Amino acid sequence: MQQLELPSYLEQSDSVRDRFARLKARPVVLEVRKLTKTFESHGRTVTALENIDFQARQREFVCVIGPSGCGKSTLIRILAGLEAPTSGEMLLDGRRVLGPGPDRGMVFQGYTLFPWRTVKKNVMFGLEMAGRSRARAEEEARQWIDLVGLAKFENAYPNQLSGGMKQRVAIARALAKNPAVLLADEPTGRLEPAVRDDIFALFRELADDGVAIVVATHDLEAADRCDRIIYLQDGRIVSREESWLFAETT
Ligand code: ADP
Ligand code: MG
Questions:
Q1: Which end of the chain has fewer beta carbons closer than 10 Å to its terminal beta carbon, N or C?
Q2: For 98-118, how does the pLDDT look when each residue is reduced to its tens digit (9 = 90+)?
Q3: Quick one: which of 236, 228, 216 has its CA closest to 65?
């Protein structure tokens, strides 16, 4: 029996081709070169990542997708500077980076808010740590909270919020560093599908606003909103696809 084959994504209409051309003309914000990470575990070497190469451009939303154990968390943790690669390097705006920095914001799967602080105080925390006066931190925190749609909840405590709202606060807190890149590891892993869509729509808007975003998820649905999908399997990139659903606004 003859098999039906999907057309290659390279067979694009002129308008799609134009969009990709515009995307590729944007400056590269994040570049990963030949990143490899091995772990020694119970006397054996586990290769969590092998020769990972990719770039994320300004206003680009990249999804790293793959089954459990393929290396997604390891990649995001290395990008965040929470873990060192075994070899390879990473550049932000052309500069080599090692370790964490305010140039990268991070959102985790679990809700990592301070339960004893209000939404506003959670977002203010990092700003005050970075040396802003209380008044200034409050003003900036309000703007970020507004941006993620939680203006009415700035005085609520985390336990009064739904999971989706908590993740929005975590996103606001990560954005408050004004990072060039926003990183997230399974940010919707614990959320209902409708809420998950909401969060991905928010990432889309933030990317359109200028932040480069790299999100790891095992959830294929997430890919609808992104510009580029990187499929990982056993620590290797097995395919890269550009989504033609991306950025209607490009
Ligand atoms: P994913 O997030 O895609 O589920 P991970 O990045 O967590 O994948 O893990 C990739 C591989 O690396 C897995 O085989 C995992 O067991 C291994 N691994 C991750 N962290 C460690 C560690 N600290 N020590 C040993 N092995 C690890
Ligand atoms: Mg993981």
A1: N
A2: 888 889 999 998 878 999 999
A3: 216
Q: Is the beta carbon of 39 within 6 A of some atom in ligand 1?
A: yes
pLDDT at residue 9, as a whole number: 60
**Which CATH number fits the domain 26-103+181-250, given the four candidates 3.40.140.10, 1.10.10.10, 3.40.640.10, 3.40.50.300?**
3.40.50.300
Per-residue pLDDT band for 247 (boundaries 50, 70, 90) equals very low
Which residue, among 113, 58, 106, has the nearest Cα to 83 in the 3D structure? 106
Q: Is the CB of 165 under 6 A from ligand 1?
A: no
What is the distance between the alpha carbons of residues 115 and 74, in angstroms, rounded to a whole number?
A: 27
3-state SS class at 176: coil
Span from the CA of 232 to the centroid of ligand 2 (angstroms): 12
d(CA 174, CA 78): 17
Q: Which residues of 64-81 are buried (b: 16+ CB within 10 A; e: fewer)?
A: bbbeeebbbbbbbbbbbb
The residues placing their C-beta within 5 Å of ligand 2, an ion, are 72-73
Single-letter amino acid, residue 97: V
The C-alpha angle with vertex 28 and arms to 50 and 198, in degrees rounded to 5, equals 85
Amino acid at 150: L
Tokens of 28: 């590269």
- Find where tokens 């029996």 sit: 1
Domain ranges of the chain: 26-103+181-250, 110-178
